[in-house]
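User: I'm new to structure prediction. If I give you an amino acid sequence, what do you actually give back? Let's try with this one:
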Amino acid sequence: MVSRSVVCAPPLRPCGVALAAALFVTLGTPVQADAASKAPAPSRPAPAKSPAVTAQSALDQAKRLIDAEQPEAAAVMLRRYIESGPGPDLLDDAYLLMAAAMFGMKEQAETIRYVNQLLGEFPNSELVDRAKLLLAKTHARAGNLDLALPLLSEVRSLSTDPTVKRDALRLTGEFQVQKKDFLRAIQAWLDELPLDTGDQAQETETQIRDLVNEKLDAPMLVRVRDAYPKMFPGDLAAIKLIELHTTSGEDHLVERDLRIFLSRFPNHPYAAKAADLQAVVRTKFKAHPYSIAAIFPMSGKLAPFGTEVLNGVQLALEHSKDGGDGPSIGLIVKDTESDRAAFLDELSNVLSDDRPLAVIGPLLSKNLPVMAEMAERTRVPLITPSATVPNLRRFGTYVFSTALTYGHQAKRVAEYALKEQQFKRFAILYPDTPYGRDLARLFAQEIRQQDGELIASEPYKEGDNDFRAVIAKLKAEDLKQYGVEVQVDNDPAKTGIRKGGKKGKRLLYSPGFDAIFIPGRSLDVGLLAAQLAFYDIAVPLLGANGWNQPDFARVADRSVEGGVFADGFFAESSSPAVQEFVERYRKRFQATPSLFAAQGYDAARLTVEAIRRGATTGEAVRDYLLMQHDLPTLSGPSGFNPDGTLNRHVFLIQVKQGKFVPLD
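Assistant: Good question. You get back a string of structure tokens that encode the predicted 3D arrangement of the chain. For your 664 residues, that looks like this:
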């Protein structure tokens, strides 16, 4: 990135010009000052040197030494001056120059001491804001950016000097870059632009351009593009994305990038080139004999999930080309969030004009009915990788799902508990959300069908941290049936129970159920498990894929030890197919694949396999998916159930010594 000059407006006192220049030379930012600011401060005409003139000369000389990168000599002169007991008129100048000299000597503690001395003794000095800038720079040099940034924010908010505000914004951007918070860095520099003078605005824009072009990866470029959809540097980020995806040969992403750019910047100087590239990409795409459409939210809050599914789809298509004998398949990507009003018309055009052999999508269950109706009408199979709505056949024979359903999870956990662990009685604590309610209902249904018994089922509010009332209800229901409470001696010296508690008698609760099913988020489950243990409910915990978060096993309370949950994908599985997929995904996208990526991969791979087996129409792809029961999925050969859902393998995962361990 380019270095930028900082020209400081002089405060009222004669030494202010020297002081401000000295400060920013010592801050480590190259200063291209004019000759006048580099020259020694002019002497005041006077018949004789007064004490004030002598003091001023001493400060001017110290400033010149700092400018000449001789902070040690300046410090000696300034220390002598401060120890002479000068009057208050120039003492704040001396403190700030001394802090600047200490900064030049890399004496962080002394720099902070002199700045604090200025702030403490002269809280109303016109140099306070400059002192805070130096203090922020000192903290940043020591690696304490979280101390530096609030100081800069304070200066920006309170200072009335536009030059000081500009310098604070410049430093804010530089520090945010160090924190890799590039979006905040860009915003700080954009806020600086109106305060820049002369060539500074051009230099600020250059700094932003260098950041976008040299430091941002594709995900961050997308964030910048979407944060500034109609202005600089959103246009620059969009162009950079086009170039990156062109280089990597991802034509479907290039087409999407070009479409977004032209819709947002139709009059941009780059627009003509973008239109030409769009024509080239479309011609190239039509050269593929077959195509698949992917319909996901690629912008907005659901974009990360859509991107993960799309990554899986891409990997399946690339895998089909390994060895050179796979079918040539083009990929059409449509963003359900880019223009909601026009989306259905756009999808209709894709189905009628491009005639894909399958559509992979949508992400959400609520979008399924209307897309299923279009798929049925055009006879193009619709394979949703994530919608969990049950009984897909009510939407027609062209609708399929590779998603892990709530029913899959509930059935697998119930089978494990009843058949493998021989548990008979259960309690359920579930979040009062659609996810929690559905899983609780399906699990209860499964255990009743398999001759198990449900003792109690209680909802809790997602995000709560106090579950005493919920646990009390659970205990009350259990005590009506099988639970037992007995009075025990609570002397810690004798029993070791609840060390630190008071001596006396207490009720010890013994649950009448064998396990608790908690289909909640990992954060809630960790808190809930600890409180269950506190109230003597020490039974095995069972859960669903909401538990599968990277830090859950490591940071949760020991009360979750031994807990078992279900999920449709486990990156640490010993399965050769899973390990190959994980290795290829990590190499391709520098990340560990999620369940969304795995389900997208399966959806695309099954379509590719149908084409490889000779399917050349949507009807043929549908028939292949309906008839085959050894389809190649990541979890092994499988087929679709009569309701249209993939009969996928469900992994059982146990929390063991701070890690997730597969049970099968």
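You can read the tokens as a compact description of the fold. Here is one thing that stands out. The CA atoms of residues 569 and 595 lie 5 Å apart.
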